[in-house]
Amino acid sequence: MSIFSRKTEQPVYEEEKPVVQEVVTPVPEPVKKVEEKPAFDPRVTVISKGTEFKGDITTEDGVKIYGNVTGNISCGSMTVFEGGEYYGDADAKELDIRGTSNGNLVCTGRTSVSATGVILGSLQSSDLATVEGATIKGQIGLCKIAPAAKAAPVYEEPVKETVKAPELSFEDEPVNNLMQEGDVAVSESDIFGNL
Q1: Domain-by-domain residue ranges, the chain?
Q2: Which is deepest, 11, 64, 92, 162, by most CB within 10 Å?
Q3: How far apart are CA 71 and CA 54, in angstroms?
């Protein structure tokens, strides 16, 4: 042994424990089925911004006005959007006025007028909803309005009238005697030519 001894320590190794990581797999949320809507609805008549239309519109479906329309409208629902202008008489099941309407409006259902909506003229509706800022200048009538019944086409039997022609007898009088002064005699060859 040596005078100076040195004690060397041996490193003590701890037994390594395996590292366990908990992996949490998120449960996917059920996929919500999104109803795809076409780029446009072929049942809705749309007057786009910058478009000016003059004429009447009759449809069972909706009319959306972004531009200017002058004419009468009979439809299922009508919306005049902000910036849109409508001039005429309208008969609809639902009205939504966000732009300007000038004329007589009849609604068998609900009429809503937004803060930007302006109605100039008369309004008859079963139900009216307005918000602060809406403008209505004219007459308002709130009452239950029955939808206009569509008249079925009326078929009438044609009038059958029997008219008895006077009896003529050519046996007693020669044909030339039936002609009066000023009558013109025309033969078949004058009418049909020589076929």
Answers
A1: 52-142
A2: 92
A3: 6
